[in-house]
Design a protein that fits this description.
heterodimer; A: MetI-like fold; B: 15 helices; 2 strands; 76% helix
Chain lengths: 286, 322
């Protein structure tokens, strides 16, 4: 009887150790793709990232060399346009959630924002195509930026709300007690205190949309030359990577890997910057 | 002295802060917050408007027929619905056990020092754009699958009918695998949040009864978190259904309904990505808008269910804690 109980106990311990080992294996398998993608990005892309890549336009098929200068600039311009739409709406919407809304209305607004976050990115492309491209009869940088901007709104709204709620209520009370109006209290005291967190949320949203391809396919459309007019098609790094990746040319594949490496490094630099900004916070906003 | 008193008195005379500016700011922020509601309506309205003629012409046949012939203007979305559902199911089959086990490892079983770095790595995986994973899929994953795992599956599991026929590499199975990689981080991080929200009292009670670490996890934590974990899976499904670029690059883009997972397939999102700019006739474009509407409908549904499962969990655990 005693021995039986003892056996049972050691079997339970073995099971526990087994579960630990299996779950660790799962964790290794989950991060394995990250390592594999990084390895091949460096192996296949690093050799092609050079000065020309950042300064030259794409060369026609058959001519070696050339770069993605226009696509890098295009991605920057698109992010700029998206920010003009996404940041003010997202931040002020987050202010409403944190400072004004009743519990019930906030529950609904958060719910809708989270649902909106789950809308497939290609859907935004179709919607903006219907809104802008069909109306103005042209693919344009504005259309691409608008699609990305729409995607930023729920992201920024939720992070802004979270960081504003971290500001202690005493700050608000102290400011109101001094006779400072509510909106000035919010702008100058609450938002200022939380400014690092708000910026973090904005950067994360930018990092998230910088690599988006699907919403740009039929809005920004892509362009093999410089964009001189924002009402015309514009190149973007993810679009260029996509069209090169599915092309039959060896040299374009090489460029696609280089573009992918540059894009991933850009996105990771933003993420590291975010960590740097939030390093002294007790609460991580991730 | 009197002068100072006078100034102090004057300060009290300052009019109270403007009620108008306060109200204006509140209304402004409310308007911005309502943007999310307007956006949902805008998406639904644009998609419905863009596809109204196709909806009238095809009715429910659109969802139930499998001919996709733009030249003859015959449009049936069944192969795309089938491809989306099957590739998402494959993805869930792979990603769910891995993600939940990883979340368990991160919250219950891993040594403390490893938890934060591992979480950061998973966040980095989430940050890799879909198009880059697709690029890797085309040039690294597909050749590997074609040369090693696929022939192996064909040899030993070919009898099942799922792993037969010619091996091209690009296939429904490859699409499912790439979607699995895309949804691993979201299911892991949502599950991790769920497990972390399980009150420590649950664990302590089980430990006090002499349970081992795994027994604590299984009895006290997992049974408590079941519903939330289900919500995490449904949210992952929502992402899987709408995943576009990476799938488009590896699934083969052939509108057919084949039993074999080695055969190329096509998804709702992929057909929009590939054919939208090539749509030469109005009806063709309308049909693609309708595909967008179907995709929007099913992803909204998945997100709705997933979010509701997570939210009801939060409120119920809150009352239980009190």
């Amino acid at each position: 009887m005693m021995a039986l109980r003892h056996d049972n106990h050691s079997w339970r311990k073995i099971k526990s150790a087994l579960a630990s080992a299996l779950s660790m294996l799962a964790a290794v398998l989950v991060i394995a793709p990250l390592g594999l993608v990084f390895f091949y990005l460096l192996q296949k892309g690093a050799g092609s990232v050079n000065w020309h890549f950042f300064t030259q336009l794409p060369k026609p098929v058959g001519e070696a060399g050339g770069g993605m200068a226009n696509a890098i600039a295009g991605t920057g311009e698109l992010l700029g346009i998206a920010s003009l739409i996404g940041i003010p709406i997202g931040v002020l919407g987050g202010v409403y959630l944190a400072e004004y809304g009743s519990a019930r209305s906030n529950w609904w607004l958060r719910f809708v924002a989270d649902i909106l976050n789950g809308v497939p990115s290609i859907t935004w492309g179709v919607v903006v195509y219907g809104m802008v491209v069909l109306t103005f009869k042209s693919f344009s940088a504005y259309a691409g930026g608008l699609a990305l901007g729409f995607m930023m709104i729920p992201l920024i709204m939720r992070t802004t709300e979270e960081v504003l709620l971290l500001v202690p209520n005493g700050y608000r009370e102290a400011s109101l007690a001094l006779g400072i109006s509510r909106w000035k209290t919010i702008v100058h005291i609450v938002m200022k205190t939380a400014s690092k967190g708000i910026i973090t949320g904005i950067l994360l949203a930018l990092a998230r949309i910088a690599g988006e391809t699907a919403p740009l396919l039929f809005t920004a459309f892509g362009n093999r030359f410089w964009n001189r007019n924002l009402a015309e098609p514009i190149a973007a790094l993810p679009l260029q990577i996509f069209s090169y990746a599915i092309s039959p040319y060896e040299d374009w594949h090489r460029q696609a890997w280089a573009g992918a490496l540059v894009l991933v490094v850009g996105i990771f630099v933003i993420n590291v910057l975010v960590r740097f900004l939030t390093r002294d916070r007790t609460v991580r906003i991730l | 002295m009197p002068a100072v008193e006078g100034r102090a008195h004057a300060k009290l005379e300052v009019p109270p802060p403007s009620r108008f500016a306060d109200k204006a700011f509140e209304w402004l922020t409310l308007a911005m917050a309502l943007a999310v509601v307007l956006l949902v309506i805008l998406v639904g309205w644009q998609l419905a408007r863009g596809s109204s003629a196709a909806i009238q012409k095809f009715g429910f046949h659109f969802l139930a027929t499998s001919t996709w012939d733009p030249v003859a203007e015959q449009f049936g979305a069944l192969p795309f619905i089938y491809g989306t559902v099957v590739s998402s199911l494959i993805a869930l089959l792979i990603a769910v056990p891995l993600s939940i086990a990883t979340a368990i490892y991160l919250t219950e079983l891993a040594p403390l020092w490893i938890r934060q770095p591992l979480t950061s790595l998973i966040e980095m995986l989430a940050a890799i754009p879909s198009v880059i994973l697709g690029l890797w899929g085309i040039f690294v994953m597909i050749p590997f699958l074609r040369d090693y795992p696929f022939p192996f599956l064909k040899k030993y599991l070919g009898w099942s009918g799922l792993f037969t026929g010619p091996i091209y590499g690009v296939s429904m199975l490859a699409g499912g695998i790439i979607i699995a990689i895309m949804i691993l981080p979201i299911i892991t991080s949502v599950s991790r949040e769920i497990l972390r929200s399980v009150p420590n009292l649950q664990r302590e009670a089980a430990y006090a009864l002499g349970a081992t670490r795994w027994e604590v996890t299984r009895i006290a934590v997992l049974s408590y978190a079941k519903r939330g974990l289900f919500g995490a899976v449904i949210l992952g499904l929502g992402r899987a259904l709408g995943e576009t670029m990476a799938v488009t690059m590896v699934i083969g883009n052939t509108p057919q309904i084949a039993t074999s997972l080695f055969a190329p397939g096509y998804t709702l999102a992929s057909v929009i990505a590939n054919e939208f700019t090539e749509a030469t006739t109005d009806l063709y474009l309308e049909a693609l808008f309708e595909i967008g509407l179907v995709l929007f409908g099913i992803t909204i549904l998945a997100n709705l269910i997933g979010q509701l499962l997570l939210r009801t969990l939060k409120t119920s655990s809150g009352t239980r804690g009190a």
